[in-house]
Amino acid sequence: MTRMILFSIVSVFLPSSAYAHMGHVGEVAGHSHWVGIAAVLGAAALAVLVAKAAKRKQRADDETKAEEETEEQTEGGAA
Question: Organism's domain of life (predicted)?
């Protein structure tokens, strides 16, 4: 009896996979699931755009810094 209770408690807390297919999304709750998926994809696309913009800005800052260092070296050598 103790083993059965212990097994029951352990089995409740063990993780299990939910096997769903994309057809499930439309069947379960209609359009609300599709709206959620669209929101997640929109957020992912926005994150990609923000990351690319930050990378471009960092690259431009690095190029500006390199140009300034080159100018300083050129001015220092001429003086």
Answer: Bacteria
- Phi and psi at 75, nearest 5°, equal -65, -40
User: Does some domain include residue 44?
Assistant: no
Assign residue 19 a region (left: φ > 0; alpha: ψ between -120 and 50; beta: otherwise). beta
Whole-prediction pTM value? Answer: 0.49
**Is 67 domain-assigned?**
yes
In a domain, 26, yes or no: no
Backbone angles phi and psi of 29, in degrees to 5: -130, 20
- Provide the greatest CA pair distance for the chain: 93
Which of 25, 47, 27 minimizes the C-alpha distance to 37?
A: 25
Contact between 17 and 5 (Cβ < 8 Å):
no
**What is the per-residue pLDDT for 44?**
96
For 42-51, the pLDDT digits (tens) are 999 999 999 9
